[in-house]
Design goal:
6% strand, elongated, 247 residues, mainly alpha, 2 domains
Length: 247
Amino acid sequence: MSKIFNPSGGYRKLHSFNFATIIHLGTISFCKRYVPWKDDPLGKTFGQMIGASRSGKQNIIEGSERAKTSSETEIKLTDVAKASLNELQGDLEDYLVQKGSIPWSIRNPDHQAVFAIMLDEFEYSEDVLHDYWTYLLGQKKKFDPWLEKRDDIAAANALIVLIQRATGLLGRQLTKLETAFLETGGIRERMTAARLEARAEPAAPQCPECGEPMKQRTSKRGPFWGCGAYPKCKGVRQIEGEKKMTP
């Protein structure tokens, strides 16, 4: 495990990302069907809704990938993803009101049904892209009765519920990222700590038997240098400053 770099990538296992991807696909479908150009002559609503859904998805990707070298960037981009999805929710709420409706109550059976659907876990494989999209489209089908097979009111409400689930998960991610940052610091602090630790460790000598780099080991008699090729080679050296090893 690296002493400097954070773990990065792996975003396809995040339910927040998978919800955001379903939201993005659902928003594209919603806008194509229910926000026609004749009712949106400047194209702003159509473009902004799809752009907000895309931003929610893409910023999770970038934040996850940038996590390796910048905790600050990961936190900022995760927050941008959350804000973009909240922006999309605002547009969907406006759409419902303009249609003479309002968002579902949390006691509405449809709200409860959409909220109760769980996502399966995605497992990485050697064929990650093919397997991921097979997985993702299978997960989206769970919500298609509302997103694709009912009317615009059901689709808008279902998207709102999915957004609330995604932003709730992103909020928890931000809390975990904050805690991790407070505990381990950023990359500059870890680089400094790793460098100081490396300076404190004695340089590994070569094995007197085979010439391979040696590793510091400990026995009942204390620390010593043992051949890195052990057990193939059993060469040893005394560590300077330590009492001489007795056979």
